[in-house]
Request: fold
Amino acid sequence: MAEEPVSAVQLLRSQKVKLIEILSADADFVLQHADSRCLLSCRSYQQVKACHVPSEKTTELLDHIIQRGPEAAEGLIRLLKDEALQEAFPRLHFMKDQQVNTASSAHSSKVDALIFFSQPPDMADVVPSIGLVEDLAGPQHPEDSLVNHSEGQFFLNEAFKIIVDEVLNKGTDVQQKVCDWKEPEELAQLLDLELRAAGEPHHRLLERVRDVAKYSIKTSHPRFFNQQFAGVDYHSLAGRFLSEALNTNLYTYEAAPVFVLMENEVLRSLRLLIGWTEGDGIFCPGGSTSNMYAMNLARFQLFPEVKSQGLCGLPRLAIFTSSQSHYSVKKGAGFLGIGTDNVILVKVDDGGCMIPEDLDEKIALVKSQGTVPFIVSCTAGTTVQGAFDPLDRIADVCEKHKLWMHVDGAWGASVLFSKQHRHLLKGIERANSVAWNPHKLLLAGLQCSALLLRDCTGLLKRCHVANATYLFQQDKFYDLDLDIGNKSLQCSRKVDCLKLWLMWKAVGSSGLEERVNKAFFNARYFVQELKKRKGFYLLHEPEFLNICFWFIPPSLRGKEGNPDYQEKLAKVAPAIKERMMKKGSMMVGYQPLENKVNFFRMVVLSPLVSQEDMDFCLDEIERLGNDM
Amino acid sequence: MAEEPVSAVQLLRSQKVKLIEILSADADFVLQHADSRCLLSCRSYQQVKACHVPSEKTTELLDHIIQRGPEAAEGLIRLLKDEALQEAFPRLHFMKDQQVNTASSAHSSKVDALIFFSQPPDMADVVPSIGLVEDLAGPQHPEDSLVNHSEGQFFLNEAFKIIVDEVLNKGTDVQQKVCDWKEPEELAQLLDLELRAAGEPHHRLLERVRDVAKYSIKTSHPRFFNQQFAGVDYHSLAGRFLSEALNTNLYTYEAAPVFVLMENEVLRSLRLLIGWTEGDGIFCPGGSTSNMYAMNLARFQLFPEVKSQGLCGLPRLAIFTSSQSHYSVKKGAGFLGIGTDNVILVKVDDGGCMIPEDLDEKIALVKSQGTVPFIVSCTAGTTVQGAFDPLDRIADVCEKHKLWMHVDGAWGASVLFSKQHRHLLKGIERANSVAWNPHKLLLAGLQCSALLLRDCTGLLKRCHVANATYLFQQDKFYDLDLDIGNKSLQCSRKVDCLKLWLMWKAVGSSGLEERVNKAFFNARYFVQELKKRKGFYLLHEPEFLNICFWFIPPSLRGKEGNPDYQEKLAKVAPAIKERMMKKGSMMVGYQPLENKVNFFRMVVLSPLVSQEDMDFCLDEIERLGNDM
Reply:
């Protein structure tokens, strides 16, 4: 029976009991032989020698050698096969037949690596200075000094524990602060950020890992209401760790077979929720980029020559979007050479929704001035008010004028998972493109931003392809359509689909639906409680998860007619925000909007938020603002 | 009486007293047997071994195994039923009849899960194990079903172990494949990618984690020579895990205090290596984006009105870059509305380096045609040949014509760490901007791409700022210059600085220098060995880490004069590549270049690569191509 040879470390470990029994008959004899072959570090030798019970001494000897790694283990096996030992311990005869994989032939003995990796953490400070430094000094390959798997995995394991402790336990505990506010100068000093010529020992690096976690904002904390992302999903997080460890670059099937297929499947599933059985798409580094891609595609469809010839010689182009759309539409217009002045802002109603009639009029006006409209960028879930533009009616206008209809659903498209609420996006299936960030409402984790297209003609690839023969060779042995990197403007592109896929597999579409419904339920609870309290006023009845409201402090109540009322009110939210940050009790954003002075924008989205957390939010605003 | 079989953990727990009594007769014997079956982590083993009272030792042993979880518990039960133990402890006979539910069949053992995750000593104060267990069992709050920390962390912990095992151990083991090639249809079926309404149990999800790892390309494998990234750095990886767990969005000091300061410090340190004591910069999602940013900045500096008014009405603009520059220059020109035809390709010498005289002539020619040149994009380390454009001489040309000088050093800028080799970038300090990807040569992990600027006037912010009052409020209580999100075209932006910072802290600039020098050393070794062999021909003596060469199979040797020689040679590299992929033994890229037919491009960069791996590469090409 020809068994696979195992590594020396594996062999010693599996035969430990037998070896202890045999060698304990004369433990000192074995130790001296081992030491004369330099199988132990000085320190290990002293430790083993200090044991006075023979079986303990043998156990220690074996353990130290196993921990030291493959070369020491191989040395011991050679010793055990040696004549002197074979004579002294006849029962050692069985060792003669044992074959091992040698470490020198192998980066391989990962088992050894693991053994080291799980050594007691409290030895970390001590062990590297004996074992590892000696390892480095010894007759090793030069590369060992650069990346050592066992040492590295030990460090990673310790760092993982700190991450769980600081970020996932303390960081989600309402008894702990959302942020530990420090002034920039103080924080810079605490963190000792400077990069120097010499490296640092592991225990110091682990302290740094803990410090970085400690002073960072706890975005998964149930009282983090500051942004349009919050909370943590552990399946997604596992997917993110795996993506990072695999370090895959998503451009070709050859380089990323799993993720090429997975991204296609995730995009297909998202498209199905929009109502498209066919189409195209890609993951982008954020919703702003998705919006820019949509603009570029719309422009390319209308003027394919723009890719090679540029805008020079073309008429002025115009983009239409609501006055409350995301600022990335303007940023994109600047970047794409269209110009921010050529972003025409369409009026919104009180709730922040685009008025289709105004859109229609503005398109006609712009056309009459010789400018060429080419895209309407609607918003499903605006950043401040959470408004949904009336997509169906906008689609009518787009059809009438033959314009590309883009939906910036970075925030709101996830509502498509909910049978109860998806009516908010009625008409989305008539769009040409949709930007959708599952890293927001679905908790997929930054970044996870899909651009989805109704197009089935390969527009995305035609628009973005470049002939890079070193990557996209035309004589490959598989279907070149799988080399999706041609669709992207990036070359290096991270894998953003795995975290969403794994989370989706874990909870199913129904679990994601539940998550969306829960967020709506929470937001409604918050609104209902807010209305019961004195001094809280909604800007507008919210239709989504953004709750915009003023807190009127006691001194301003009933003073609405005073000439300086607005000026004073404008200072309330920033002052309360400063207090809450310095206290670290919670985080909620504020901003002005058009003629409305600073108000709070509460975003309730994480399933980790309880009604108690929402009550706390209202209480805390009262506490922090009651003396104003 | 047919009792429900209990879990292994439950059984051990219920029989603990009896087992302690029996096994304490020879606690060391049991411990050594347990250790040789790998039932304990090394840390646990050390702790148990440290107990000197037999009953305590046995108690500790049982507790550690129970805490470790169902698999360890099942292993111990199998051991207790084993002949060796049954002989040593006759009273253990009762164990023979005990049946248990196996963990593999049971996601069920939530209790085990909870016990496991909540017991490690360092977490004990944070996680009230009883509370959690009760929460699960008792009447649940609706939110508990959505995100459960204890269950989630158990899953994350299990996934972490799989990641270490599959990606970091097997994935870096030369005895294992670099890729496990599957045809797309087969792979899609194996992975069962479809997303459904219902969720899946944890054990199934963990299998999925393993499958994703198993069928992905092992980019950290010592025989992955396919791309300009490879290898793994554990410090960086710990930084990446921490970044993912913190889920920070890098736009304001309020949202990302640690990372705003850290990014500034990392950028400052990179700039110092260029030779700039002042300047600006930002991390971008990849080098392509960095290059596009540089183009946009150069354009904005020349024509600030382009941001608001667009290109309409401006003269035709032109970009200059070498014929071997990265394809992102053209992609960027298309995206920015400049047009790919307005990217003027400058000639290169045999080594692939831009010829400054040709640049000067082409600029003059373009100007004479009424087109406005505005940027020269040089390359430090071209993608295929690894060529360094002569930066100092190009800087002279740029100064003469008053053009923005950009250096695409995505690949080559890391050489600045090496005193021995940094002469390759002489003149880089005269550039206006530099793109630098530490995720390539330095092993920082995807993505880590810095755009660095010499400008100190706030050009980057002026060029990209939009007035987003919900994020960049003007009445904050801290220095608004810290709200760096205004510099970016992204809104959501991942933290890419931490992994580089932590790695740099760990090994110091000197460690990174060593890494660069080692890569040069390895590349030179490969070239030297290649030259000794029959059938291998270099395109050109490499000056960097890209080694471009043909393998001439036996049937083509000496046939250089044949009319179909080139045609046949062109088919060799693709055919060998197909064989190597299907075998999974290694990965190395190939491509044609201008009039040169397909050749291999070997990239040696990872410190994990040994001389043996490089010898293997040459041997393997011979093996795979010898019948051609």
Notes: Chain B has 24 helices and 14 strands.
